[in-house]
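Researcher: Re-running this chain for the archive, since the previous output was lost when a drive failed. Same request as before.
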Amino acid sequence: MANQDFPLIFELSQESRTGFSLPEMDVPEVELPMDDVYVRKEAADLPEVSELQIMRHYTALSKRNHGVDSGFYPLGSCTMKYNPKMNEDVARLTGFSHIHPHQPEESVQGAMGLLYDLQTTLASITGMHTVTLQPAAGAHGEWTGLMMIRAFHEENGDYNRTKVIVPDSAHGTNPASATVAGFEAVTVKSDEHGLVDLEDLKRVVGDDTAALMLTNPNTLGLFEEHILEMAEIIHEAGGKLYYDGANLNAILGYARPGDMGFDVVHLNLHKTFTGPHGGGGPGSGPVGVTEEMVPYLPKPLLAKKGDKFVFDYECPKSIGRVKPYYGNFGINVRAYTYIRTMGAEGLKKVSEYAVLNANYMMRRLQEEYELPFTQHCKHEFVISGKRQKKLGVRTLDIAKRLLDFGYHPPTIYFPLNVEEALMVEPTETESKETLDAFIEAMLQISNEAKEDPEIVQEAPHTTIVKRMDETTAARKPVLRYIKEG
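Model: Regenerated structure tokens:
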């Protein structure tokens, strides 16, 4: 049922109202074959509303959404930083927004030149030999990289390399990508400092190891201090080192995965390089590789021959195409614009301020929340609601209560090796005033848990939608409008 102040668009429907006007047709009319399975046999049951009604409807919906343009979004491990509007302006330039992937190469040399420059720049930033922009997002990049590693081992006759090692603090996509790529995921434990346990790594590595998947800094926001030793362990066993680039925002300009010994790297342009995230737009998950892995890159490869840019399909060892055409072009344009705007020194400042903001918040919040790992963090940190849980207030309750203050909650209950976890990533784009206001809200919630826990347990109180029955919502979701009567 709709809220009284916000009727559903179907409930506004009145016969003969029209909310659109189409331009005069400038192509010949064609009769569609009615036996085609994709042709409707009857009109769609759509609401009939005026243009004004539909504009008000979607404008009202937009005001009820939370996004990085409307409020603080400290979603740990997702790097929800501000998306500069200059990027949008450049991506909408006619030469970029009005081209078509079926155009002849000679007619889109400018766009191809931008992509070539972007992949060259990303290779330099990561310390890799070559980058492909084809994968559509982070997890797609993971799968692409693992398929290349699989192709490498099979080319060398190593068919017994069936296992991918994944830390217990890893992103959930890591073991999932390994499984989809045909590998068995093997867990390596964290030590008491939140880093990969080297002795446990030595225990699980062997001649069946295809790769170790790792992000550095890790999902706890901690830099893997023994990364060079880890790389040596994996390489001596004949495996490859895979870098999950979700946390690259912490080390831009200061450290490169290639210099740490990684063989394959994926990046999230919609995280580190400010493309719109989630509902704001598609992702982009470029993959960079060492020279040894270049033959297995997805085809076509974007190359420069003389003064021309071309797509090279002569790649006999390639794993094949992983996406139609060549990546999510608009997101790649936005990332390129961001990199050129910031410059090398600007990208270093990104990581400096991201790390400064995270450490400032972490030290302030450890006054009231348990801090499982006390060393300095990088771009994000994990605190625990264990103290509040003893008072009857769960981490979920804390997250719901934050909605009343106008904040999107941090990531909760992840990583799995921290009980009642809250993973906070402020990014570099937030001001100290915003950080302080969020900290005060968190401290107030902690105080409420002590003095009046029901306020937190029953939150949120101010949002349009109050607390849902999450079990029923997950098991019996209502995904479409059903007209009554």
